[in-house]
Each structure stands twice: as C-alpha cells, then as structure tokens.
Design goal:
globular; 133 residues; five-stranded mixed β-sheet; three-stranded antiparallel β-sheet; mainly beta; 1 helix; Metal Binding Protein, Guanine Nucleotide Exchange Factor, Chain A; 5% helix
Length: 133
C-alpha cells in the first residue's frame, strides 16, 4: 500500500509504502498531553518505508526526557508527523497526518488506566455534522 500525508500548513509532506501491523489509541498521560485530546491515534509498522517529499529539514522531533515517548511535528503549524523509533525498527504514524483513508481500524485502546476522567460514554453525547450554532 502507498499512503501520502502532510502537516496542516502543507510545508511538510511525505509518503509511506508498506503495511501497518497495528493501530492503537493510546490514553497515556504523555499522548494526551502532546495531542491535547483524549488519546493519540497512531499506526505502527516494522516494515513500511517513510519518504519525506518536502520539508524534511524542518521536521522537529521531541523525545520526552529521553524516555522513548517521541513526537515529530511541524514547527510552523504544530501538526504531528511520522517518526522512526526503537533504533530504526518501528515507524510510528499519527493517523490524522495521512491525507488518504486509513484502511485499518484501531486494534485496541492502550493505557486505559490513564484515561481522562471526561473520556467516558462519549458515544452517548449529542453529535453534529458541523460546528453547532
């Protein structure tokens, strides 16, 4: 499979060739903090190849206290971007950074013991197709 992606401002673009083995929704404190949301949604591959199409020199990578919690992002718009982890053996791709449909459905929620207290029964709240008036 081939996938393309970019940051919000479009300064950084990339392609990925290969398959994703896992798609996890992570609720750990670090993922909640760096996404500003209930969880991160990341695709994982040990075989897919990442190629930067534009802006590679601008990609910033942050390794929280050298803990292995790694986030790459665009310094202009702040969008999350793919990165290589575990000594080059794991490609981690924020699902929302892709410009194409993701064929995978999430495999699991992980670090649920760290879930935000407001992240419960969200399927029961009102839904709007656009910003409510």
């Amino acid at each position: 499979m081939k996938y393309t992606g970019s940051c919000l401002c479009g300064d950084i673009t990339f392609k990925i060739e290969g398959e994703f083995e896992n798609f996890f929704l992570c609720h750990c404190e670090h993922c909640r903090k760096d996404t500003g949301s209930a969880h991160a949604a990341n695709l994982f591959s040990s075989t897919a190849k990442l190629t930067w199409l534009s802006g590679e020199e601008n990609v910033k990578t942050f390794d929280y206290k050298s803990s292995g919690h790694i986030k790459s992002f665009c310094p202009i718009c702040g969008s999350s971007l793919p990165n290589i982890q575990m000594d080059g053996s794991l490609l981690v791709v924020p699902a929302g950074s892709l410009d194409v449909d993701v064929p995978n459905k999430p495999n699991a929620h992980i670090f649920c013991s760290h879930r935000a207290n407001w992240d419960e029964k969200l399927e029961n709240i009102k839904k709007f197709q656009e910003l409510p008036k």
